[in-house]
């Protein structure tokens, strides 16, 4: 497992968030302990999932925790037992359907990163989040390096990649995805200076920093709202553009809500617009 040097989220007691294993879940306890240790999470064993939806558990673990469930490792809100754990699942039917029926190289994201003919760029996704865009690019044949700075998100991605490697429909795609934990600005600089081993020249750096939602915008789905509440928006997003431009050999792509300003107020070379968001493309 990789070494983690990044952002450690703390609970109300100023302790690292917990990864909780339940006795009624069939999972590899050695793997879970290693996952918790790698990403600096407290490892806890409990009898059953319902044990965490109590005031006592909230006081002990804080509002959020990672739990081991049948679907993998998931993020939960201990105040909301009706909310399903948020997992990274690269074997999900919806994701595989999008891979097969979503438009392929005609998708806006494919056009934004420069997929054309047989050319498949190598991509550094510097704000990987839950990895959906990385998976779509990898499904189209791109080699993708995922950068993520927050420990719980790295743990979710790590678990999703592990399970993806064991699934017949996803294993070839996930094989083109590499997780590189740590601060994106520092990692981009290190990659540009050759301090981090990279199999391929980086053709494209892809940025999708979290941006505050408009109050009048459509309601965000509850799992993602939990995710955004826990992580907040990326107030330092502007810091990503300069090292991204230094690293990429062909283009930098920034995904933004249509109402959001350009990063660093830097006008892109071109834009690809959708109903709710756009891709700002900086050609090099």
Folded structure, characterized:
It contains ten helices and twelve strands. It has 284 residues and is α/β, with parallel strands linked by helices. Strand 1, helix 1 and strand 2 form a beta-alpha-beta unit. The strands form two sheets. The protein has a seven-stranded mixed beta sheet, with helices on both faces. Strands 2-1-3-4-5 form a five-stranded mixed beta sheet, covered by helices on one side. The protein folds into two domains: 70 residues, Alpha-D-Glucose-1,6-Bisphosphate, Chain A, domain 3, CATH 3.40.120; 191 residues, Rossmann fold (3-Layer(aba) Sandwich).
Count of separate structural domains: 2
**What percent strand?**
15-25%
Q: Measure the end-to-end span.
A: 35 Å
Kindly state the percentage of residues in helix. Answer: 25-40%
Q: Would you tell me which CATH topology of the largest domain applies?
A: Rossmann fold
CATH superfamily of the largest domain: Vaccinia Virus protein VP39
Global outline: globular
Low-confidence stretches: none
